[in-house]
Amino acid sequence: MPHNILVCGMMKQGKSRYARKLIVSNNLDQFGCLVFDVNDEYGQFREDRETGKIMPSTNLPTDTNLPRSRYIGGDFNEFLAIADNKKHTTIIFEEATSFFMGATGQKVRSLVTRQGHSKNNYVFIFHSIRTIPPTLLGLMHYVVLFKTNDDEDTVKKRDPKLLPFWFQLQYKEDGAKPYSLNWLEMKPFDKKAFEVLKNSKIK
Predict the structure, then answer these.
(1) Is 90 exceeded by the pLDDT of residue 123?
(2) For residue 202, is pLDDT > 50?
(3) Domain boundaries, given as residue ranges, for the chain
(4) Annotation: CATH topology of 4-198
């Protein structure tokens, strides 16, 4: 069954690294993929944000007619129109906050609610919990939570279930290794699929 996954964390915590790992793993091999690649991180090479070094990446082509591709145009409506025609595809919304700043937010929600027809996976990447629309959070099956800059009250108001996981990440010892994450199951319905996705660990 398709899944809705929300990935949240501040910069340099491993969000995009996790998404790249997800789409190249065997876990989602039966799906195509389409990425809103606003930061050009899913081509042949990418710049590591921590070291500045040029690193190999997922090598996705920019021809969105192909089963596995990335969109680099920057036009939200055009990307959503392309996504609307995809089926059995993992669609990744990098910088997802931007999609909910205007009328495009309703279009995104419409895509997700028609998931039973498209059989698409949807992955939304946010920098903070406070920028996640509550109506979108309510549609998620899983949350992948990295360290954020949110405060306790904000997290509690957005969804109390997130709070203990958020605490675990916020108060790690100074110098703790980056790329620490917590998985939270929001709508349990497929235990086997949950374990498979959860084990797509960052390397």
Answers:
(1) yes
(2) no
(3) 4-198
(4) Rossmann fold (3.40.50)
